[in-house]
Amino acid sequence: MTATSAAPGASSRLLVVRNDKLGDFMLAWPALACLKAAHPVPHISVLVPAYTAPMARLCPWIDEVLIDPGEGADRIARRRLLAEVKAARFDALLTLFSTPRIGWLGWRAGIPLRLTPATKWAQLFYNRRVVQRRSRSEKPEYRYNQELAEALLAALGLAPGAGPEPPYWPLPESERQAERRRLTEELGLDPTRPWCFLHGGSGGSAVNLAPLQYARLVLGVDARIADGRQPQWVLTAGPGEEATAEAIQIPLLDASVPVYRLPTREGLADFARSLSAADLFIAGSTGPLHIAGCLDVATAGFYPARRSATPLRWQTCNRAQHRLAFCPPEGAGEQDMTSIDIAAAADRITGFLISHNRREAQP
């Protein structure tokens, strides 16, 4: 065995690390799909925090999930993780976002091939590095991740497969229809009208529209569509975001616009499957938006103008015709979401919904 490949004919054992937020992890799914398409097919393990582990277990490109105890873990937990990684005898480590702790882990575990972006001093623990300049935001984040996966395959001598295409979470249509039936029973939604899910929370990181801006957006879309064909609006919320959903809902109910709340789900995995029922998912650049993107649900994302958080950099990984993106105009403050033209956004979203309904009506 060499330092860059498994034994001839053997399945390479790969450890992929993306151990930060949910949205970042969802944008790793295209890279995981790229790795799983290689020949011979590698065995893929991921190291993720407990929070995103339920999604990792749903990912069809992952064979095994390892839990990262995190930066604040005690010495016992860190030793336990090191022993687990050593015992797995990985052929390669791919760290999509490098940190010194993970670099040190891979080096101490004796993983022969360790690849990461060539940024920060953590790269010193790796023997393969790829220059990307992500801070320039010249490509989508998921494409940067795919480039790292492609570099790893080349280093291992594995033949790349056909380029994976959306959906990167290929949920069977039967499961999507089951989610729609479930919501029809729970909320009494009209299945003949488009279902628009709206997530007003920010996950504690992404800048988002204010609740009243979202309420204006809903009113604007409804006003542009003929009576009786308006969307069914469903508000979603993560833990601690219920007050934001209520702040969107109250002015809409006051304006006699029917708007529903997604019922409580049994954890992240159950919540994520529910999003497959949507015809359009509207949110800031948050984890739920990127779950919808992996499902190839149509998305309308609201982004700040900050260079490191542009609509291009944090583009959802659904098909291009399923993506809408909005951000402050040139000259506005980087995080001045109040400068986004809500009327123009309502126009574009209305146009999408009308064209979507026409496609759905075709035999």
TrEMBL record:
Keyword Glycosyltransferase annotated: yes
CDD domains membership: GT9_LPS_heptosyltransferase (cd03789)
Domain of life: Bacteria
Keywords associated with the record: Glycosyltransferase, Transferase
Residues annotated as transmembrane: none
Alphabetical list of PANTHER family matching this protein: GLYCOSYLTRANSFERASE HI_0523-RELATED, TETRAACYLDISACCHARIDE 4'-KINASE-RELATED
Protein name, UniProt field: Glycosyltransferase family 9 protein
Native organism: Halomonas tibetensis
Organism lineage: Bacteria, Pseudomonadati, Pseudomonadota, Gammaproteobacteria, Oceanospirillales
